[in-house]
Design brief:
Elements (H helix, E strand, L loop, with lengths): L1 H19 L8 E8 L2 E4 L4 E4 L2 E7 L6 E8 L4 E6 L5 E3 L4 E3 L3 E8 L9 E8 L6 E10 L4 E3 L5 E3 L4 E7 L5 E2 L5 E2 L3 E8 L2 E8 L3 E7 L2 E7 L5 E4 L3 E8 L4 E2 L6 E4 L1 H5 L2 E6 L9 E5 L8 E11 L3 E8 L10 E5 L2 E6 L2 E4 L2 E9 L4 E2 L3 E2 L4 E9 L6 E3 L3 E2 L11 E7 L8 E6 L2 E9 L11 E4 L5 E2 L7 E4 L7 E4 L14 E10 L5 E12 L20 E2 L16 E8 L10 E8 L3 E10 L3 E4 L13 E10 L7 E13 L13 E10 L8 E2 L2 E8 L7 E11 L2
Parallel strand pairs: 4-11, 13-22, 23-30, 24-31, 34-40, 43-49
Antiparallel strand pairs: 1-2, 1-5, 3-4, 5-9, 6-10, 7-9, 8-9, 10-11, 12-14, 14-18, 15-20, 16-17, 17-18, 19-22, 20-21, 25-28, 26-27, 26-29, 27-28, 29-30, 32-33, 32-35, 35-38, 36-39, 37-38, 39-40, 41-42, 41-44, 44-47, 45-46, 45-48, 48-49, 50-52, 50-57, 51-57, 52-53, 53-54, 54-56, 55-57, 56-57
Length: 712
């Protein structure tokens, strides 16, 4: 028993070994080379491990860099290579197999700095595998970004903001602070204006002060050791800070909001203390040192606090910017100190406008689910506002769209939004403005409308623009609809408002019936992500035109015509919409009727007699005959007819001459008619033969000649 157990265990181990000993999958390409400008980057030499995965690293100098890619296969058994499409690049050339040695193609990258998780995904079909294999080559773009401060004027004055220009070769790749950063005796911040990076420096202490600026990049670079780095070399600049003629008193707040509270009650602030600053006293703050300056604010000193500060009330009366110059603290008209701060207006909104994709700015604040809009807010003091929008996704990418007077946002409306009203808030406080959510109401091409005039429904967009010939009894004309063709996952149209016009004419083009079916509303089907939000007043089922027509389609004569026009109600779509016109013509190929004609001057040849007889007089023929319609024209006859009937030879020749032969014959007759339409009297040419009833000997005869035809 023990021996049997040991043998079973060994057998199981022997079976399990192949499952763990499978060799790794061999890549299809032994080399992948990316050529950018004049540099080549083979994968074997420029492999970089990032986040635990191998990447092909390459240096780029332009956002939309063009690169050539060469794929060298391991074995010549690759039948085809396909590159999966991506939003990060565009394939410029088809992938070409060069003499079964390597594959080659070109791509143009899109916005390399903003691209994340960049890779090539190949579908490789080999001769020995039934299905293509997916291989992913991860890419690691890097670039050399520089930023320098070239400034000879290094003199600053206490309390005075100074702006310097930073030179850089790739502003889009820089990450920089936009708020004030405090340093040792210096405060600074960075801003961008018209594509120029600016450094704002505000000294707060006297003497030699060194500014150390450390910037980071969005896309990294490789240092001398081939390591990834996001840090730029530190920018160091030493400034000489001098004091002004008047003592600068700094405030604890750099920005003051001018509103009714600041104008009447005032704002509580802390200001630096000075032996010459009196308590319980009101000082004027003006924009110039000389008397008669504009009154910006009043400062009332209350009492001393710790850290050598004075608690004050600041009442504001006008706007001011630090960049406009110093503010002077005056006792009467005499300047005692200087200070500086921004006085900005209270955030107020004057107007809100939106712009749909492909449209213009409008104050109609109606949006549709699933769309991307631009929203513009105009007013005052907007740079400090924090706007948010209920249930909307803010995809604004450019911070320069925010200023004191205007703020522009890029917003995406969720396709499954349930709100009918989207509030606009500033720091959780309603601004009083809101967006209205309205279902899409765009005209959809009429491929969702089907017409059945015979055996099966057909899309009206696939029907011919000219006449549609139908050779059977037209039992009915039925319009049906395919609601699931209206809305798609990312392209919504909404309810479709249609008008159906029907016009029926006979074979003489005379109007015999006319109807207009209005208020046909087709709602998108259940596949629409907005199906639950559409109204209930939707047209259900099919529309049978016989339910509306007084003259039913099955009662129409040959060559009658039913004209149907399906069109959008353009009043619902701002004058836009689609229209489709169809003409159903009841065609016949042959017509059977009875005619009475009067052959005159027939040349008759009797069987069994020599020669031809003389021309006869006026005869009468009653013929049941077939007329043939032209196959490419509407209600037009061919110029010939074939029939059979009776011929009364010389029926209207009342002469007593014995040579006049009168007789009645049964004939088969062919005739050639003029093609003039709607004529009651015509002059055809007859050719035929027959059998005289009264003759027992040689009754057969043939005839040829003109005649007179009367059509009833």
């Amino acid at each position: 028993m023990k021996k049997f157990f040991v043998l079973s265990l060994l057998a199981l181990l022997w079976l399990a070994v192949p499952a763990f000993a499978q060799p790794p999958v061999t890549p299809s390409f032994k080399e992948i080379t990316l050529k950018v400008d004049t540099s080549a980057y083979p994968f074997s030499q420029y492999t970089l491990t990032f986040q635990g995965e191998e990447h092909l690293a390459f240096l780029y100098t332009r956002e939309n860099q063009v690169a050539e890619v060469t794929l060298t296969p391991v074995a010549p058994n690759i039948q085809s290579v396909k590159l999966a499409p991506s939003a990060d690049f565009t394939l410029l050339d088809s992938i070409v197999n060069v003499n079964n040695e390597y594959f080659k193609f070109r791509v143009r990258f899109k916005n390399l700095t903003a691209s994340q998780f960049l890779n090539f995904t190949f579908f490789v079909k080999k001769a020995d595998t039934p299905e293509p294999r997916t291989e992913i080559v991860k890419l690691f773009p890097h670039t050399q970004t520089t930023a320098k401060l070239l400034q000879e004027d290094t003199e600053l004055f206490i309390g005075e903001e100074k702006v310097f220009e930073l030179t850089t070769n790739n502003l889009a790749n820089l990450k920089f602070p936009t708020d004030w950063v405090k340093g040792e005796g210096l405060e600074y911040r960075l801003s961008e204006r018209n594509g120029i990076l600016r450094l704002h420096v505000m000294p707060t202490a006297l003497g030699k002060r060194t500014l150390k600026l450390n910037l980071q990049t969005i896309k990294p670079s490789l240092n001398q050791n081939g390591r990834i780095t996001y840090d730029l070399p530190e920018i160091t600049q030493t400034f000489t800070v001098k004091g002004s003629r008047l003592r600068f008193l700094a405030t604890d707040k750099k920005e003051m909001v001018y509103d009714d509270v600041a104008r009447t009650k005032g704002i509580e602030i802390l200001i630096e203390n000075n032996w010459n600053l009196s308590l319980q006293k009101t000082y004027r703050i003006e924009d110039q040192e000389q008397p008669g300056g504009m009154l910006v604010a009043e400062l009332f000193t209350r009492n001393n606090v710790t850290n050598n500060k004075v608690l004050c009330w600041l009442r504001i009366f006008n706007y001011h910017r630090i960049s406009e110059g110093y503010l002077y603290i005056k006792d009467g008209d005499q300047a005692k100190f200087i200070t500086n701060f921004d006085v900005i207006p209270k955030t107020s909104i004057k107007s809100v406008a939106i712009m749909h994709e492909g449209g213009d700015w409008t104050t109609n604040l109606t949006v549709n689910p699933g769309e991307v809009i631009s929203l513009r807010i105009e007013g005052e003091g907007l740079q400090k506002a924090q706007f948010n929008f209920e249930d909307l996704r803010d995809i604004t990418a450019d911070s320069t769209l925010l200023s004191e007077q205007s703020a522009v946002f890029r917003l995406r409306v969720p396709i499954n939004i349930t709100r009918k009203r989207i509030g606009i808030y500033n720091r959780a406080v309603s601004t009083g403005y809101a967006l209205s959510v309205k279902e899409h109401q765009r005209p959809k091409p009429l491929d969702f409308v089907l017409l059945n005039y015979g055996d099966k429904p057909r899309k009206i967009t696939s029907l011919a623009s000219g006449p549609i010939f139908y050779e059977h009894v037209l039992k009915d004309l039925v319009l049906s609809f395919s609601p699931n063709l209206i809305d798609q996952e990312r392209k919504l149209y909404g309810q479709q408002y249609l008008t159906i016009q029907v016009r029926v004419t006979n074979n003489r083009n005379e109007l015999i019936d006319q109807r207009t079916i209005e208020n046909v509303v087709i709602c998108p089907g259940d596949n629409s992500p907005r199906a639950a939000f559409y109204g209930e007043a939707c047209t259900q089922g099919e529309i049978s035109l016989n339910n509306y027509l007084g003259r039913k389609t099955y009662d129409l004569n040959e060559w009658s015509k039913v004209e149907i026009i399906v069109s959008h109600n353009k009043d619902k779509y701002g004058g836009e919409g689609f229209s489709k016109k169809m003409e159903i013509v009841l065609r016949r190929r042959v017509k059977f009727d009875t005619e009475v004609s009067f052959p005159a001057g027939l040349l008759v040849k009797n069987q069994g007699t020599d020669g031809y007889g003389s021309f006869g007089g006026i005869s009468m023929a009653m013929i049941a005959q077939f007329s043939f319609y032209h196959p490419e024209k509407i209600n037009r006859y061919r110029p010939y007819k074939v029939g059979a009937g009776f011929l009364a030879l010389n029926a209207f020749n009342f002469s007593n001459n014995a040579d006049v032969k009168r007789d009645l014959g049964v004939v088969v007759i062919g005739s050639l008619y003029p093609t003039t339409r709607d004529t009651k009297l015509s002059f055809p040419l007859y050719l035929g033969g027959g059998y005289f009833i009264s003759k027992s000997k040689d009754p057969w005869f043939y005839f040829l000649g003109p005649g007179i035809q009367v059509r009833f």
